[in-house]
Amino acid sequence: MSPSSRAVTRDGVALRFWEWPGAEPSTLLLHGVANYGRYWDDAATEIDGRLRLIAPDARGHGDSDRHGIGYERDEFLKDVIAILDDTGIAHALVVGHSMGGGHAIGLAARHPERVRGLVLVDHSPQPMPEGATRARRLTSTRDDRFDDRAAALAYLKRTSPGYSDHVYEGRLEHAFRATDGGGLVWRSDRDALARIFQHGLPAAERWAELERVRCPTLVVRGTRSQVLDERTARRMVDATHGRLLELDAGHNIALDRPHELASAIVELAGSL
Question: Tell me, what CATH number does 31's domain have?
Fold first, then answer.
């Protein structure tokens, strides 16, 4: 089932989000840096109406507005609360991948009344150096425009090899938009991405925030991840009194293992 979409405006910034109808608890899906709400499509297909799903395009990403300012952590949290308010969700199960995991932790720590549970998908308060360096390099050095889909696909396969044709097709559809001249440009904004990295919290603050989380928490780690190592994942579990699920996946678990991830999300939701 394809999701519906609409936008809510907060302080002049239009925030697009995607919704799949389903049962309670309502579940918020927060994507990582340079991604988009439709990143969760395959997991949503696997969940198949067992949960109501809301997947925003973070500001500066997807079909949400791009602005030259407003990429501090607090702004993203205020955006999420605006979307929860607009959709009538008093408290949600919050699933966050990578950057979205950091936002999910911030929401649970600072606004615990809005969060029923957390699923942290390959998010690390202290990322492995190779993963952090790769993310900065890819977002800062990527080509701004591609002549056609073939050129964009070649770029994706070169920089992120090993996915199925289905996954690449989804990324072509949702990571790029067509220009009037027939080329493709990114839906995420290069300047926004740079500002997000610039405003990242120090590791000590990230750990302190995680230790304030009191809701049921599942940490999901890809065993081939270059972002979240096993030792850090176990420390996260200890900090939250949560559980750890490790899957044969890289950093993008929702693309590598959507069925297993969806099952874990539904299982946690059923326990809340």
Answer: 3.40.50.1820
For residue 147, being part of any structural domain is answered with: no
What is the distance between the alpha carbons of residues 116 and 32, in angstroms, rounded to a whole number?
21
Domain count, the chain: 1
pLDDT of residue 68: 73
Q: Which domain holds residue 55?
A: 4-128+202-271
pLDDT tens sequence across 127-176: 998 888 888 887 888 889 999 999 999 999 999 999 999 999 999 999 99
What value does the mean pLDDT of the chain take?
95
CA distances for 155 relative to 96, 127, 158, 159, angstroms: 26, 25, 5, 6
Structural domain contains residue 169: no
Query: CA of 99: how far to CAs of 96, 196, 252, 267, in Å?
Result: 7, 9, 12, 23
Q: What does pTM read for this prediction?
A: 0.96
